[in-house]
Amino acid sequence: MLLSFENVCLTYAPKRRILDDVSFCLPEAGFAFLTGSSGAGKSSLLRLVYQAEEPTSGQIRLFGEALVKGGHKKQAELRRKIGVVFQDFRLIPHLTAWENAALPLRLTDASDDYIKRHARELLEWVGVGSRMDAYPAELSGGEQQRVAIARAVMTKPRLLLADEPTGNVDEDTALKLFHLFDELNKLGTAVILATHQSRLVDKFHKPAMQLCGGKIVGDKV
Predict the structure, then answer these.
(1) Interval 91-140: pLDDT, tens
(2) For residues 65 and 4, what is the distance between their CA atoms, to the nearest angstrom?
(3) Hey, which residues does 215 pair with through a beta bridge?
(4) Nearest CA to 40 among 220, 210, 178, 186?
(5) Per residue in 42-85, pLDDT tens?
(6) What is the pLDDT of residue 152?
(7) CB 183 within 8 Å of CB 193
């Protein structure tokens, strides 16, 4: 199993429980929507997966490893296998689309030739190949999000987390992005896509976990 939550709780002081006894499993190359209203805990659940938060109780297993407190070396190793797409894109303004997308490979020992070729191929694949020399301010919201997606999958992660990735684009663009995540999944990357756009979720035959009151009340993976 690629990811599992077992009776996971997350509480912020003073006694504000965000997640309450959450359990689910995501298989290798699985796909699941994470739905719920604003403030339901979707972002917090994703933050637990990429270890920006630690659970108050319960156990999380990722890539066969139990996530433990203070394991910074192991944490860095696991994070390298995860791609994250944020709602606000988080592109660096003074870098071009190509430079933003290539950033994760710059942190590896990949050759310059490989970085140039792979970044170009991915930007073309997500549909912004003609815009790779543009700066973020020159891109539309949908184009910025596509660059962010290319950056997130640049190192071929086993798991892709998308936190409200279509919150800043129109519905037609959002649907195209959903199809893009579906295609990435078909290529072998597991995906958890957090969204409040239930109407779009209904267009895809994928498991959906609905968060309400800190609990999963919809289908489990």
Answers:
(1) 999 999 999 999 999 888 889 999 999 999 999 989 999 999 999 999 99
(2) 10
(3) 212
(4) 210
(5) 999 999 999 999 999 999 999 999 987 766 777 888 888 999 99
(6) 93
(7) no
Q: At what angle do helices 171-186 and 141-152 cross, to 10 degrees?
A: 20
CB contact at 8 A, 2 and 158: yes
Which of 165, 103, 96 is CA-nearest to residue 129? Answer: 96
Which H or E run contains 44? helix 42-49
At 42, list the tokens.
Answer: 């979707």
Residues near 45 by Cβ (< 8 Å), separated by ≥ 6?
10, 19, 22, 34, 194, 211
pLDDT score, position 160: 97
Return the percentage of the chain with pLDDT > 70, whole number: 98
Amino acid at 168: N
Asked whether the beta carbons of 65 and 78 are under 8 A apart, the reply is: yes
Q: Look up residue 100 and give its two tokens.
A: 């933003």
Could you give the CA distance from residue 47 to residue 29 in angstroms, rounded to a whole number? 20
- The closest alpha carbon to 123, from 106, 146, 104, belongs to 146
User: Smallest Cα–Cα separation from 152: which of 80, 73, 52?
Assistant: 80
Q: Give the residue among 183, 180, 187 at the shortest CA–CA distance from 165.
A: 180
Count how many residues are written for the chain: 221
Distance of alpha carbon 59 from alpha carbon 56, whole angstroms = 9
